[in-house]
Each structure stands twice: as structure tokens, then as C-alpha cells.
Amino acid sequence: MLLKSLEIQGFKTFVDRIKLEFGPGITCIVGPNGSGKSNIVDAIAWVLGEQSARALRGSRMEDVIFAGSEKRRPVGLAEVTLVLDNTDGTLPLPYPEIAITRRLMRSGESEYKLNKIPCRLRDIQELLMDTGAGREKFSFIGQGRLEEILTAHPEERRLLLEEVAGITRSRWRKEQVLKRLAETEQDLVRLKDILRELE
Ligand code: ATP
């Protein structure tokens, strides 16, 4: 699953819209300290559904919206679109290219889109399960990440290994089915009570 392009607007240092095209092979991002190299990686993690402001090096999610500089006023909206190549069919959608978009307004309102169609965060999370870009994001090795993995609790490490092994999606489906089963069992109990009352 290759990254094809990334569009960023109003996210951290990138107040104006920028579009990065990733070619095949290795892409290096070079720049002076504080110029926004890590913010590009944060933008990728964010558009893929990252929910922790801390993981994005902020304290609140609103911190990802451009907060102003000496020359520019703050903006009210951050938007990132990541286009993934899906010609190998890694992602379970019948499209050769998949564009994931995330927007956040300062009011707290947020929006996700798949190929420009509004969707839920859950649709994106389900789409990315077992790809390495899902919840555990093992394909992101940030500064300090290795140490974090080595010192993680066994339970956290197991989640990571499950994502690497590609069983997250099956586990998630099993949990959903078990939840539905429990709900149905409760409905049955309630139904039996009603029937007994009617007899
Ligand atoms: P280094 O090489 O030191 O790791 P870097 O190129 O990776 O640096 P980043 O960490 O990506 O740089 O960017 C840090 C810069 O991003 C800081 O100058 C910080 O002020 C700016 N920044 C972070 N969040 C925002 C925001 N919401 N609005 C405006 N600027 C922001």
C-alpha cells in the first residue's frame, strides 16, 4: 500500500494548502530544525484517524489547527487528504486509489471522508485494520517509538503484534458478533417475560 500524495491546509505549520506527491522508492524530507518535518508525519497519522492529541505532540486536538505566526492570523480549520494507491487491493474497497480526508473546525466539529464521501471515523479505522496504518500504526516509527514498544505493558505489546500478524480485523469482527449475540440474548429474555405476562 503506497502513499501517493498528501494535501495539507491549516494543519500546524502549514497554513496555506500544500500538496506533496510521493514517488515510488524512498522519500526523504529535509529541512532545518522546527521547519515542520515531523508535522508532515503528524498530518499522516491524523488523517488516518489518530485520536490522541499527545501522540500528535499537542495537549488538545485543537492544537493541530494553525495557531498563527508573526505574519499570519490563526485559522479556524485544518484539513488533510491522503491518497493511497490501492492497485494491489490491500484495502477492501474496489477502487485503485483511495483518498482519506479529515477536517477539524475550531468549534470542535469534525468530518471524515472516503473518496470525497462523508463517512465515520469507524469506517476509516475498519478500512485500515491489519494494514500497519491502523490503530497501532506499527509502520510509523517515530522518535522514541522503539523504546516505547520495548517498555510497553504486555497487553499493549500484544495489540501491536496482533496488528502485525493481521488478525486485528478478525478479532474486531468477533467482538462485534459477540456484542450482537449478547444483545439478542437480552432481547430474547425480555420477549420471554412479555410472553409469560400474556399467558
Ligand atoms: P526537528 O528537526 O527539530 O525535529 P521539525 O522540522 O520536525 O523539527 P516540527 O516538529 O515538525 O519541526 O515543527 C515544529 C514547529 O511547528 C514549531 O515551530 C511549532 O511552533 C510549529 N507548530 C506546531 N503546531 C502548530 C500550530 N498549531 N500552529 C502553528 N505552528 C505550529
Automatic annotation (TrEMBL):
<comment type="subunit">
    <text>Homodimer.</text>
</comment>
<feature type="binding site">
    <location>
        <begin position="32"/>
        <end position="39"/>
    </location>
    <ligand>
        <name>ATP</name>
    </ligand>
</feature>
<comment type="function">
    <text>Required for chromosome condensation and partitioning.</text>
</comment>
<comment type="similarity">
    <text>Belongs to the SMC family.</text>
</comment>
<protein>
    <recommendedName>
        <fullName>Chromosome partition protein Smc</fullName>
    </recommendedName>
</protein>
